[in-house]
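Aim 2 progress update. The chain analyzed this quarter is reproduced below.
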Amino acid sequence: MDKPALKIEHFILCFIVIIVGITIFLSMTSPIARAIRNGEPVNGLLIGTDWVDYARHSDTLVFVNYKPGNRFLNIVSIPRDTHFSPEGYHFYKINEIYAYNYKMKKDDHFACRQVCQAVEDLFQHRLNIPYYVQINYEGFKKFIDLIGGIDVEIEEPMNYDDSAQTLHIHFEPGKQHLNGARALEYVRYRGKSGDIGRVFRQQRFLKSVLARFRNPLLIARIPQFAGIFLTEVKTDLSMWDIIVCVIELKDIRANNIRLAQLPGAPRKELWIVDYENCSGLFDKILCSTAAVSAAQGPKPRIEVWNASGKPKLAEQVTWLLRQQGFDVINYGTFSTRQKKTLIKDLTGDLRGAQKIAEIISCGEVVTRFDEKRYMDVSVTLGEDCNIKSGQQAQ
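Predicted structure tokens:
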């Protein structure tokens, strides 16, 4: 009677040994796993495309830099209207690169690689981009549904109708839970602020998506994620690379995510890159310590603007920040009201802006690097800021 039991035990032991062996082999051969194990940065490009086969184009471009040593994630959004006109081509915008190369080869992988090279050129080859993940509209919807949807707060009515593209977007203000289809409408919407407003909305959405990965139950859905990646996603990452990335994402803290935007300014229908500010931002990304430590030397210079409609709120916040050692140079009333508080880190030293958010108990922190800045942090107080007169910092 003991022999069958012994055989079963041997079978289970052999199965475990095989699984462990396969895991070790994949970990040794995976470039992502090897980079994480050695503490080397990982750079990649997230490319969102539409589903039109005859004229497919990149609707979203996001550069991602991950530092495994301190689990710090840099997210740099590249406006799709960014001016890019290399010699020998008739491009004017960065999003035309994908469309042109896909039309030439009808090959998503080829088009993705050309986009990566174009962004490297745009970055003046300060950063290499060896990896890409391209996802279309259908894949995006399936992915959001699989992680259980995303909670967002709509700050103002969002209405857009385009009968030619059968695109009809309508959102009312308030907290909403978005499934895949509604999430796609949310990230595609372009309001009065154009592509810059959409970039900011997409960054906040992406941060909410990353927060979803902290749910350990998602590990059980890896086979379903694999199905989406095999059918709807084009990437040069192996399935094991993707699993490694998912496991890493669940351990990233919100304060270790920098949301940045490619420095520049709008000019007519184009986004004109500010290469001097780009260089400064890339210095921060490449630096191993500045990205995750508060600025050293003189106290950061702060400006505070009241966009909440609440009287004397800027003065109250100024008093509170000065109590905590911040050098508030200027404060006043903003020209228009806004729902949410926005804290702009203008130096690339994220912790100072994050500390301000902790003190006032509100605020979305974003990096908008400015080499010519007079201030280091710009705080615009929205209706969500509830500082009371005489309040002490926690």
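The radius of gyration is 23 Å. Confidence is low (pLDDT under 50) at residues 288-296. These observations will guide the mutagenesis experiments scheduled for the next reporting period.
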